[in-house]
Write a structure and sequence with these properties.
Elements (H helix, E strand, L loop, with lengths): L3 H6 L8 H14 L3 H5 L18 H6 L4 H4 L9 H4 L12 H4 L18 H10 L17 E4 L14 E4 L1 H7 L6
Antiparallel strand pairs: 1-2
Length: about 180
């Protein structure tokens, strides 16, 4: 269950159904590309105070030995993982890009949005990685090679050489669409 405080912070009605909110959130996330993934810095740094940072959970408040009046500001549970994945690792806020739904980046080269991986990019990645799974190290035949997005497409990752790597089917299925930290 998503805490009503979290729903309100995200700009939703606190009385809305959790599934509805998560579906809307997934729609926002799927079309956004976080510029920091390509730029390696957060261009929204000066704006972060205007974007949500959730309060501690009651459990965390008790661990920190908060008084009863401070515990009232805590939420019952953490946000779902889909929302936690959108936290900025540097500033601790939810990235503004998910609220303004920017399907672009500030880089010079436009981000590829299609699922198609051009043959030239595919070949360059396979050559660079020596047809070897980058997780388990297994040497792969050409019909066993799968390309993995380090930053998943579903989280705005581009189909560019620096974001792709060779993986075997097993390792690729295990990773799924999770971000690696």
């Amino acid at each position: 269950m998503i805490d009503p405080v979290i729903k309100k912070e995200l700009g939703f009605n606190p009385n809305d159904d959790d599934d509805t909110i998560l579906n809307l959130w997934k729609d926002n996330v799927s079309i956004a590309c976080k510029p920091c993934w390509e730029l390696k810095y957060c261009p929204y740094g000066p704006l972060v105070e205007d974007f949500p940072v959730f309060p501690l959970t009651k459990e965390e408040g008790i661990e920190c030995d908060f008084g009863p009046e401070d515990l009232d500001e805590c939420v019952e549970t953490l946000p779902p993982q889909e929302i936690l994945d959108c936290y900025c690792k540097k500033f601790g806020h939810i990235c503004p890009v998910f609220f303004v739904k920017e399907p672009f980046t500030e880089t010079k080269e436009a981000r590829r949005i299609t699922r198609y991986t051009p043959r030239k990019i595919w070949l360059n990645v396979v050559r660079r990685d020596n047809s070897q799974c980058q997780i388990c190290g297994r040497l792969l035949k050409s019909d066993e090679i799968q390309l993995d997005h380090k930053i998943p497409r579903s989280k705005g990752g581009p189909t560019e050489e620096q974001n792709l790597r060779v993986m075997c089917k097993g390792c690729n299925l295990k990773k799924s669409n999770r971000l690696e930290i």
